[in-house]
Design a protein that fits this description.
alpha+beta; 5 strands; 5-stranded mixed β-sheet; YaeB-like fold; 3 helices
Length: 115
């Protein structure tokens, strides 16, 4: 599975990493889960939008430093049954629920427009 991240995600991640030092290892664990089940399992994953072979998913992100489920991560899962190299995950946004109530819908629209 290929993993990418947008510039906005990288900026969000760096900002949160200053507060939560386990974020890097937590993201590696999250990637392992996504490698097995790209759309996630259970109530902690929610498909926000599906366009063709692109799923936009919002998930609870477990952070060891935080010890709560207050982080959210938004990612695009791209599947293409004809071309195996096209299958992958691109991280769009990560945020702390205490600072921001919902995902950035404009960022998602812009991402889908630029695909």
């Amino acid at each position: 599975m290929n993993f990418k991240s947008t510039k906005e995600f990288q900026k969000d991640f760096r900002k949160l990493f200053k507060k939560f030092k386990s974020l890097d290892s937590d993201l590696k664990e999250f990637k392992k889960v996504l490698s097995e089940v790209p759309l996630g399992i259970g109530k902690h994953f929610n498909v926000i939008t599906k366009t063709g072979c692109v799923y936009i998913v919002k998930a609870r992100f477990f952070c060891k430093s935080l010890k709560k489920k207050d982080l959210r991560i938004i990612y695009a899962y791209i599947e293409n049954h004809q071309i195996k190299e096209m299958i992958g995950v691109e991280f769009l946004e990560i945020y702390f629920k205490g600072n921001k109530e919902n995902e950035d819908h404009e960022r998602i629209k812009e991402y889908l427009k630029n695909l």
